[in-house]
Amino acid sequence: MKTMINVALPKGRLGEKVYAMFEKAGYDCSSIKENSRKLTFENEEKGIRYFWVKPSDVAIYVERGAADIGVAGKDILLEYSPDVYELLDLGLGKCRMAVAGKTDFTDDTEKTLRVATKFVNIAMDYYSKKSRDIDIIKLNGSIELAPILGLSDVIVDIVETGTTLKENNLAPLETIVPISARLISNKASFKFKTAEIEAIKNAIALQTEVNS
Fold first, then answer.
1. What span, in angstroms and rounded, lies between the C-alpha atoms of 81 and 115?
2. CA atoms within 13 A on the CB side of 63
């Protein structure tokens, strides 16, 4: 019987693009496209089982071993530092983690910098490397409102096109790190299912080269 590889896919548009890569790489599963309430989808012949989870939960499923492999954004990996292997940059969901603020903002280094973000660890790590004294304000949504209403001086958030910032008289001030979707693996799974996971990784890698 073929060894099954459990794959955690992020729900949404990114996940659909990721599945398309798996499909083109030869790991198709027709039931995943059916309109049903099923939670798992498998192709025994190909030795693969998929399930959809919230994007921020993918790394948890992989770290805990419920999934052998999965696809998570680099932002999640940097923020939560899950104990997983990062196997491949898929080149999907490209954006950047950035510091943003009002277009006329100038940093007064004599004062504590107020930083609003939901990426607390990324922000703290970034500013600690700059030896900058900061006050972190943890928010879960509408981060852009913070500098507009004077709650913070700047924000640390994901920037894609920058349109939302521009429409609110905000601008990216510094890029912290490029972000994209990464193929990750559970460490024990990689040890015991090395051949199967490497085969998937190599097949997906060919697709990333085609798309680049």
1. 21
2. 13
Burial class (CB in 10 A: 0-12, 13-18, 19+), 53: buried
How many separate helices (H) and strands (E) can be counted in the chain?
A: 8, 11
Query: Which strands form 170-179's sheet, in the order they lie side by side?
Result: 134-138, 113-117, 154-159, 95-102, 170-179
Structure tokens at 156: 């640390």
Q: What's the half-sphere exposure (Cβ side, CA atoms, 13 Å) at 156? A: 25
Question: Which residue has 């521009």 as its token pair?
Answer: 166
Q: What is the CA radius of gyration of the chain?
A: 20
- For residue range 15-51, list pLDDT tens digits in order: 999 999 999 999 999 899 888 888 899 999 999 999 9
User: How far is residue 75 from each of residues 27, 29, 54, 103, 195, measured CA to CA in Å?
Assistant: 26, 28, 14, 25, 28
Q: What is the DSSP letter of 186?
A: E
Q: Which residue type is seen at 124?
A: M
Could you identify the residue written with the tokens 């999640």? 76
pTM: 0.92
